[in-house]
From TrEMBL:
Organism: Sinocyclocheilus rhinocerous
SMART domains: ANK, PreSET, SET
Ranges of residues in domain Pre-SET: 704-767
Protein name listed in UniProt: Euchromatic histone-lysine N-methyltransferase 1b
Subcellular location(s) of the protein: Chromosome
Amino acid sequence: NSGQMEMSGETVISFEPRPVSPSVAAVSRRKKRKMGMYSLVPKKKNKVLKQRTVLEMFQRMSQSPPNPQVRDRTTRFTLKDSFCPPQSSESSLKKKWKKKVKGDHAWLRPSRKCKRKLKAKTEGLSGTVNVKRPVFLEYLLWCFLAVSGSVESTDTDMVQELPLCSCRMEMPKSREILTLADRKCMATESIDSQLSRCQSAVLKHEMMRPSNSVQLLVLCEDHRTGMVKHQCCPGCGFFCRAGVFMECQPEVNISHRFHRACASVLKGQSFCPHCGEEVSKTKEVTIAKADTTSTVPLTHGSCVPTTSEGKADTTTGGYGKADSTLPKPPRSHDTSVLPLGSRTGPVEAGSGTGPPPGSIKETLESVLLALDAEKPKKLRFHPKQLYISAKQGELQKVLLMLVDGIDPNFNMESQNKRTPLHVAAEAGHQEVCHMLVQAGANLDMCDEDQRTPLMEACENNHLDTVRYLLRAGAIVSHKDVEGSTCLHLAAKTGHFGIVQHLLSTGLVDINCQDDGGWTAMIWATEYKHVDQVKLLLSKGADINIRDKEENICLHWAAFSGCVEIAEILLGAKCDLNTVNIHGDSPMHIASRESRLDCVNLFLSRGADISLKNKEGETPMECCSQNSKVWTALQASKKQREANSNQTGPVEKLLNRDIARGYEKVPIPCVNAVDSEPCPDNYKYVPESCVTSPMNIDKNITHLQYCVCKDDCSSASCMCGQLSLRCWYDKESRLLPEFCNEEPPLIFECNHACSCWRTCKNRVVQNGLRIRLQLFRTQMMGWGVKTLQDIPQGTFVCEYVGEIISDTEADVRENDSYLFSLDSKVGDMYCVDARFYGNISRFINHHCEPNLFPCRVFTSHQDLRFPHIAFFACKNISAGDELGFDYGDHFWDVKGKLFRCQCGSSKCKHSATAIAQRQADSTPGDQQPSALPDTSSSTPSSPS
């Protein structure tokens, strides 16, 4: 009986010596090959019975060893039609015989070279071959079937049938081949007679090959999938991913690819080397370009910091953060062969320029004319091919694919889910970007790293592409997974033109911080881009912004050792003795990194070399003993000790941040006057608080709001109308025509408005942004000074404290910190900063003030409880003390206890000024009454 069973994924058939009936042949002809995955990897060591091949059985039956020529002929002749039913042109047995003699055994199959030799010998003897030999061979075959049928019950006589191709077979892994391949994919692709080698990493080490005539290969996952799908030609072993090749479809969802020259030839007829189907039933297929595993030339950008260039470790114990540059997915393969139609070489990323607009227009016109004039060929495109063509700048092919209906937003799973627009922007192909955008490509599509095409163009210094994408409407403020914007990426890589253009748009926040707290200025400082530092500084970049570890730009300049940038920062009034979260000053970092030039610069500017970090180390203890840095610090220390008797007390840092991190910027406390410690008789709060119910109306339905879609700069903004107009300019400063003496109420946009949180009518609600310092004054106790220049109209800080009623204020003993809200509506309320307050409680009175208060409403519009915001009424230089006018009412009450010590030439409340007023008001014949001077024995301000 005829039986069939599965052994290790292979089909084994036994035969009986009986005639083949028409019904059996028809059934066999309809039978389809099993297309499962064959694995030759041994699972466990089972006892395997020896199976004899067809050759062995022929040899057993023959008394003498067969001639090699006869052996070769047996693989070429088939059964005669006399043994087949008359109505069948090719019996099932004939097909099975073809398969058996075609691939005798996976391990006994002769090499292709040997076959060619045997074929030549056979053809040479073809003229003398007896015409009756096929009948003799058929007789031998039937004898063989009779012998095998007599012992059909045994497994040893079963004939093993293997597929013509071995595309779905896995061979055991070989350490030698894997080492030889360097754990890289060994697949080779044939593209229009050009060969390219894949270099992707290998995940699975089992080997595969399309046929026994091809060497065993270790393949990447993509090519393993292609092998299983019969995309590898069994004749040459090259993958058919692009170009012209033959395709056989035994079933609707199965296709076999091979080259026409690699087809199996039998008696002058060609057959599919995968399944044995006649070539006449196959079709010629043309596929444009290669898949993502094809050869893709790299676009060599300018020097971008890699993951090996970690963020600076500015701490004593390695607290540094890794660089935010993520490694790109492996996109490059062997670039020795460039596909036809691609660019001749990689784009120079340092130029930032592309083809002139005229050439782009001419290119687009020529492509469109060619598309309109030529009859398009019926090509089969895959969406992946659009990705490759966009990367290589093949405009005509991109246009053909878009016309063919391929989705321009197709993302490549194996390439970080990037789109064709990503790679076109990365390579600077402006015309390709234009075509993709016109076809509906999303300008702000993100890959797995949340990178947009604009970010790719900025990072790779393609200025023309950046300009085009911005004109097309790309969002410039988008952040990637690490919080980096386009400005961060351009500043980090040193692309001056990109940074300059982004800043000129007015759409970027120059002080925007990424997830590490780093700004564009910090990135430019760390990577020593001096020109960019100057540019950013001229555009108003804040050099005192702290990162997550409270480092400022000067810390990073010390780390990188760029003395030129350090000098620029010190010239911009950067604090030399500021410390980070680990207590390290820039001098600590310069000493630890052995930056001698920076150490000498800091010493010349009076850096404190006795300052200790949290590890208890001074800068001298952070460097190697007897090194050049240590010698310079030691010499400076001895010189300062010698001069210590001639100089006054040294400024001491008492607290690195009195706000305890509640403000966006730290507020240090220093004392260079006496031994007074940092004040701690109050609780620092960033917002006003209450200790009893105040019933502030915060109902959102009671808010008046705007419906602006722009930045609230138009006269139709409802919030601006409540304030008479919008009083802020695009730099968040009050307009010059704003009245400082009688300031109007300002209504900022709130959470009920339709505008964005970044609209220009939101300033006070953004909180403290100015670098301030609490310091000990000579005459007025504690005071506040600025560490940076403050332009006129800039918001400085808010007067924060405990909101109390006017009745409660009357019974409080210490009224030195009271600020009347003066709402003129209903009951009176005050803000008392005695027990709860922020930095504003230390601002002293000044008869020539540089600040003025203004009432502002942000999250609510209850007129009884406005915010008291301080704005600069004139330009304030870094290092100047801040002050505002307490008012005459304050001095009417407190003037009996102390006098003003502001030192202004226009002081109205000093002892001298009061005496002068009294002298002017006294008649000439009367002597003025003497007043005691109490300024030396009592505090002169409520600080």
